[in-house]
Request: fold
Amino acid sequence: MAGIYIHVPFCKQACHYCDFHFSTSLKKKNKMLLALQKELVLRKAELNDESIETIYFGGGTPSILEPHEIEGLLDTVYAHYKVSDNPEVTLEANPDDLPKNQILRLSQTPINRLSIGIQSFFDIDLTLMNRAHNAKEAFVCLEEAMVFFDNISIDLIYGIPGMDEKRWERNMTRALSHGVPHISAYALTVEPRTALEHFIKEGKVPDVDDGQAQRQFHMLVGCLEAKGYINYEISNFGKPGFFSHNNTAYWKGKHYIGIGPSAHSFDGKRRGWNVRNNSKYIKALEENQVPIEHEVLSVRDRYNEYVMTGLRTIWGVSLQKVRKEFGPTYEQYLGQQAAKYIAEHLLFWDGDVLLTTKKGKFLADGIASDLFMVNLS
Reply:
């Protein structure tokens, strides 16, 4: 099983919290589409004829493209790769890009999963984050999307300055009222060199409150699990049968190639990343060159990555896998480092699988970093 991620580096406007690679100018859109198709062709041998199970359009804002432009990229995939009979094909979309006629047109393409960036159902939050849509558009697009798509995910953000527990609870209630089978929810983070960081430094926006974010996370877990959602990864909640195949493959270390400027790839032993510049990316592809750098991962790197991703999921970190793939030194080290967190009821063993407790889940990334091997190569 393998996957293809296609990065569409365009947005209508810049969200204040975002540090992803994108441009608000569409002047180079046609050249970019040609470059994306060219990269797909040039890299077709990398997956060794593995079956493509997931195709994911991320960004940026992929829904800024016309349906026929998306189909052009998909046609290239199908022409040059071995695609499974029923792949998961996801399109990230913003509510303002999803009027009824657009949703209908998208439903007639191979797209079979929408990931809609709602973020909040309240205009006060959307304005603070500089989102391109408003609360009414969020409601309307979800109502229409549910008519044409069975597999829909929505994004929400908690820990927004000024968003108290009551408003967060109302956000969750409104999300659940639409019956979407998958919800991704993320704590608002202050990334370097973003508008949000600037506004906080200038005192125009209150700083993010980590304690508030943690409380709202635990509210989220309790609310969604009570409604039958499974918290299969820290930020992801799905009804049975609706886990994201794309994200699950990433967390389980499956092979994937990333197409487009700033996109990342992984083949099991090497990680690659494309140049983070639209003009340089287009120019390289016009010259039949893939503008990518690679890093060969050491045993230590692969162990650390496995611990990081494993602790975030319901599949945890398998001691048997650590022993088999990394050796007894890593197995012993993991047990020693985990002991104090087990004593603090933040981690626990389920057989030979190390998992976070409910108390420890929100702290998983910090705990994982303390389980990292730092001395061996």
Q: What stands out?
A: The mean pLDDT is 96.
